[in-house]
Amino acid sequence: MKYFLEGSLVALRPLFEADIRLLWQWLNDREATYFMFYGQRPQTEEQVREHFMKQATNESNVLCIILNKKNARPIGFAGLYDLHFTARSAEFRVFIGEKKFWGKGFGTEVTELLTFYGFDRLNLNRIYLGVTSENKGGVKAYEKAGFKREGILKDDIYRNSRYYDSIRMAILRDNYYKTHYSAHKKRFSL
Ligand SMILES: CC(C)(COP(=O)(O)OP(=O)(O)OC[C@H]1O[C@@H](n2cnc3c(N)ncnc32)[C@H](O)[C@@H]1OP(=O)(O)O)[C@@H](O)C(=O)NCCC(=O)NCCS
User: Fold this and answer.
1) Which Gene3D superfamilies match (predicted)?
2) Mutate to test the pocket of ligand 1, among 140, 159, 165 (most ligand atoms within 8 A of CB)
3) Contact at 8 Å (CB) between 170 and 129?
4) By CB count within 10 A, which of 7, 10, 47, 112 is most buried?
5) Is the CB of 96 inside a 6 Å radius of any atom of ligand 1?
6) Measured from the CB, is residue 75 less than 6 Å from ligand 1?
7) Is the CB of 133 under 6 A from ligand 1?
8) 40-94 tens-digit pLDDT
9) Which has the closest alpha carbon to 146: 107, 179, 118, 103?
10) What are the CA-CA distances from residue 77 to residues 4, 20, 63, 135 (Å)?
11) What spacing in Å lies between the alpha carbon of 36 and ligand 1's midpoint?
């Protein structure tokens, strides 16, 4: 079976109703959400279902991350959010909820797959993101995938009894085609 997007480590497929229970568990996990807005309020499974159903619109494209093998279990979700049709921009977000899969290159490959998809298939001009400055794994994964730092929002996130700065990053179409496209095309095209 071919998945919607495939790398050598992970694949991305649509979210199914059966994934909701796992999403609910991840979103209530204090460690998995340590640097995030997610996890600030408790959420019921029904609230998580509603949240993801609302996002399944033309403005956001949320996919389930699985290992790239047959019948693989979901390990997280990622997507391009707030697709803007005149600016041709979108926000990238990723969440690997299964903690044993952190630090194995999956976050980097998900970022690469969704930027490839955003430029190659959606004809975007700009993909941006926000990340807590202390989320070292996240910042490094995004830089490896070609995102550049654009600025810092001071005290942008409150969590764990303190404020965190967030780093805004983006990748622009012209730069992507100069630096990453041909390698991604070889890895991710059919
Ligand atoms: C943040 C996240 C997406 C990163 O994905 P990942 O698969 O864990 O990261 P990768 O394995 O692709 O690592 C990218 C680089 O960062 C390094 N890295 C990973 N975790 C790190 C950490 N905690 N501290 C320092 N470096 C780290 C890796 O070694 C790798 O560098 P290398 O290629 O030079 O070895 C993932 O851990 C995650 O989803 N965490 C929970 C939710 C979250 O924080 N989402 C992001 C919100 S912006």
Assistant:
1) 3.40.630.30
2) 140
3) yes
4) 10
5) yes
6) no
7) no
8) 889 999 999 999 988 877 789 999 999 988 778 899 999 999 999 999 999 999 9
9) 179
10) 14, 11, 6, 18
11) 14
Pairing assessment for the beta strands 89-96 and 74-84 based on DSSP bridges: antiparallel
- What ligand 1 atom has the least distance to the C-alpha of 109? 12
Task: Give me the residue spans of the domains in the chain.
Answer: 5-182
What is the SS3 assignment for 173? helix
In 10 A of CB 65, how many CB atoms? 29
For residue range 103-144, what is the model confidence (pLDDT) as tens digits? 999 999 999 999 999 999 999 999 999 999 999 999 999 999
Contact indicator for 173, 116 with CB cutoff of 8 Å? no
Fold assignment, 5-182: Aminopeptidase (3.40.630)
